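Hi C.,

You asked whether I'd gotten around to modeling the 363-residue construct. I have! Everything is below, sequence then structure, no commentary in between.
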Amino acid sequence: MLVQLKRIAKSLLAIGWIRALFDTVQRAILEVAGANRLLAHAYHALNPFAFNREQAAVARGARNYYRNTGTERQSHVELRRNVHRIEKGLTMIPRRDVFAADFIAETIGYYEVAVRQAFAAPGSLDELELQWAHDVLEAYFEACTAAHPVIAKARTGFQNLPWDRGNQGLAPTPKSVRGNSLLAVEQFEELARQRRSVRFFDQRPVPRELIDRALAIGAQAPTACNRMPYEFRVFDDGEMVRKVAALPFGAAGYNHQIPALAVVIGKLESYFSPRDRHAIYVDSSLAAMSFMFALETQGLSSSVINWPDFEPLEAKMQKLLGLDLSQRVVMLIALGYADPATLVPYSQKKGLDTFRSFNRLAG
């Protein structure tokens, strides 16, 4: 039904006078609605459903954030956030003798919940996440040399918790220890120019170990407060791939032969405030780009499939994947071995001067 309505709309808009009338009316309305924030609010008040899913998702995500605090989970996002904040304090130049006093007690509370889960239900949470938290906190208490009652109490709480895994060196280290890139800029530029969207694929199965390696590389992308508020839901079962790939309009004409598909999902339950609602798109997109570069280096091609915020499609995807309201689909990525006969768009990019400026302020 939805596809039929889309075809009817496209057919009507292909008629010159109808398209001209539509554009004229649309432009007149938007000239008024776009004049200021008050008129924009009035415009959207007439169509409250345009942003209703996002508003509901943000509210549900914040609710889930608080509900999840203190419960058993594979990853403790509130602990990740605070530990990363401490990491930043450890890396400051000059570093203060006392810092993070306003949230260290809260952090130890989060850490205690994770430690007790790890010992009560081994394997139920990300062990490296917990190890990282331990090592950073240990480095923090060693660095805070000045007397402070809140930090002293937190230190005692940290030391009294059970721990039998030692220190694995996951706290901040000098940049020199990590070394410099062995990849020349010319090589990286060649990779970036080589990677283009491929939509037609050889039907060979895609080895899962190649996908996993690319995902592990994608996970190294920067993410606000190290929350990593996303999930890559990968499908390589032919029937499932076709069901999921059939939903986005942008995959029409080639969705039937995609061998593997990743649905990138943003998790708003990672945030307690609406101010961070866009971070799921930023962070997941950074990871997705690294993921696609890693696929390319392993001989696998990919194509991003746009996912519009369109309620009928959102509802279908939510039902098909069993998503919570707080989980937002960001994009889909088709991947596989390129069909040797396929053509690749040239996709000329904008010139540097069209998107780059230096030291540009208003006026």
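If it helps when you're writing up: The first strand starts at residue 230 and ends at 235.

Thanks,
B.
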